[in-house]
Design a protein that fits this description.
alpha+beta; Trna Endonuclease, Chain: A, domain 1; five-stranded mixed β-sheet; 5 strands; 36% helix; globular
Length: 109
């Protein structure tokens, strides 16, 4: 997928989150371990959100691999340490398809 398509999916994900009461803290946070697409807060919980897009749900969600989740966890810890945060957090995913947007809360290995 091209970076332009990825940006469109991330923009849709941001709007989706904002419409549901999330506050967007940062987009595209990078560490040596990887990238977190969206960092948001809601109800005193920090959400690290991975955005995946594809023609259908199955194709998009297959890209959330154990390796990707491991990189997300490490990057989330870097973010929290860098910002001196000791808060509740969750790793989430937003799947953007041609027909729908789905929010998957608390993805784990």
């Amino acid at each position: 997928m091209s970076r332009a398509k990825g940006n469109i999916a991330e923009d849709k994900a941001v709007l989706f989150l904002e419409e549901r009461g999330f506050f967007i803290v940062q987009r595209n946070f990078y560490s040596r371990f990887g990238e977190i697409d969206i960092i948001a807060t809601k109800d005193d919980v920090l959400h690290f959100v991975e955005v995946k897009s594809g023609e259908d749900y199955e194709l998009a969600v297959q890209n959330i691999t154990p390796s990707k989740i491991n990189k997300l966890v490490k990057t989330a810890h870097v973010y929290m340490k860098k910002n001196s945060l000791d808060v509740d957090f969750t790793l989430d995913a937003i799947i953007v398809t041609l027909a729908d947007i789905e929010f998957i809360e608390n993805i784990t290995l």
